[in-house]
UniProtKB/TrEMBL annotation:
Top EC group: transferase
First-to-last residue of the parent protein present: 241 to 607 of 607
Quaternary structure and interacting proteins, as annotated: Homodimer.
Source species: Pontixanthobacter aquaemixtae
This protein's name: Glutamine--fructose-6-phosphate aminotransferase [isomerizing]
Broad class of where this protein is predominantly found: cytoplasm
Sorted UniProt keywords: Aminotransferase, Cytoplasm, Glutamine amidotransferase, Repeat, Transferase
Organism superkingdom: Bacteria
Length: 367
């Protein structure tokens, strides 16, 4: 029954709307609500010995990995090396003894990622796998299997698998931080509490579906779209651009907000919508000044932020989308929703094949 479209027009749309449920499902197997601790399933491996993490993935899974790098480094103070699977083996990566190599994949079958996994295994790394298909090759070859419980994902462009990957990675990063003595009991409880708020916040984000659908008409005529974000929300800018390219065939680029002035600002004119992902917080001011740089060149800014952020900087934007006020840890999960919905509705306006975009495959099994 879970692979029927039900009342939805497309699988992708259904999968976007399933996120509160599947993220809650996924979190429930990593968080113990009773004592507010993070508990990984079936773990007979001492994470406290891990001094370096190598993460390898492709596509949307790579952007989940990119968010996780911020978390592993910030919470657990463990350095992370990150690569596209297709680049990884050929650059002769340095793999230290006792390292954890982490592979993130919805399908568990992506050829480049699987080849990278086997390379790391041969080099004696401990193999951790975050995967949505429990019977996949990657799941079978893992030392440490960390499943996402997103259920079957049919839309070629990944959505619910991504937010579930983020949920698992946030739990893993917190668990590692505890094991490393970087997070005490009360901080762990804080984190668990905020992660458990994620499903309700995803629902609040989904409530803006109609606003985003009307906004899609402003974006659909564009030839180029720029997405900006900072810190752990920078990968969301990349993911937003990827989603738009994949299903609406509009050229889009994601950039770190502060890096825009080193190149993409040259592209800005009245024709280029700039989607800014910026929850309010310590770095918000800096992003606001990046928005001013865009506006001074006639750029059309769409601000995705919370109420405080929109009140402070929403004026002069062609549109704003209000997200709930969230803890920074769950912001990447929550801000995934508007970028997915925006790509979805733009594709609907353009009449493209949302679930089966041209030239793309659900799972790429050639290197
Ligand atoms: C393909 C899909 C993407 C996906 C990527 C990685 O390109 O179209 O949606 O993110 O593969 O797939 P994986 O199954 O390894 O996560």
């Amino acid at each position: 029954a879970s692979i029927e479209k039900g009342n939805y027009r497309h699988y992708m749309q259904k999968e976007i709307f399933e996120q509160p449920t599947v993220v809650a499902q996924t979190l429930s197997s990593y968080l113990r609500q009773a004592d507010e601790t993070v508990a990984l399933p079936q773990i007979d491996f001492d994470l406290s010995t891990v001094n370096r993490i190598t993460i390898v993935a492709c596509g949307t899974s790579y952007y989940a990995a990119m968010v996780a790098k911020y978390w592993f480094e910030q919470f657990a103070r463990v350095p992370v090396d990150l690569d596209f699977a297709s680049e990884f083996r050929y650059r002769e990566p340095v793999l230290e003894e006792g390292g954890l190599a982490l592979f993130i994949s919805q399908s568990g079958e992506t050829a480049d990622t699987l080849a990278a996994l086997r390379h790391c295994k041969a080099e004696g790394q401990t193999i951790g796998v975050v995967v949505n298909v429990p019977t996949s090759s990657m799941a079978r070859e893992a030392d440490l299997l960390l499943p996402t419980h997103a259920g079957p994902e049919i839309g070629v462009a990944s959505t619910k698998a991504f937010t579930c990957q983020l949920a698992v990675l946030a739990a893993l990063a917190s668990h590692l931080a505890v094991k490393k003595g970087r997070m005490d009991r009360s901080e762990e409880q804080e984190v668990v509490k905020h992660l458990l708020e994620a499903p309700a916040c995803l629902n609040a984000a989904l409530d803006h579906d109609d606003d985003i659908a009307s906004m899609a008409h402003l974006i659909a005529p564009a030839r180029d779209v720029l997405y900006l974000g900072r810190g752990p929300d920078f990968p969301l800018a990349l993911e937003g651009a990827l989603k738009l390219k994949e299903i609406s065939y509009i050229h889009a680029e994601g950039y770190a907000s502060g890096e825009m002035k080193h190149g993409p600002i040259a592209l800005i004119d009245e024709e280029v919508p700039v989607i800014v992902l910026a929850p309010s917080g310590p770095l918000f001011e800096k992003t606001v000044s990046n928005m001013h740089e865009v506006r001074a060149r006639g750029g059309q800014v769409v601000l995705i932020s919370d109420r405080a952020g929109i009140e402070e900087a929403g004026e002069g934007c062609i549109a704003t989308i209000e997200m709930p006020q969230v803890h920074p840890l769950i912001a990447p999960l929550v801000y995934a929703v508007p970028v997915q919905l925006l790509a979805y509705h733009v594709a609907c306006v353009k009449g493209t094949d949302v679930d089966q975009p041209r030239n793309l495959a659900k799972s790429v099994t050639v290197e």
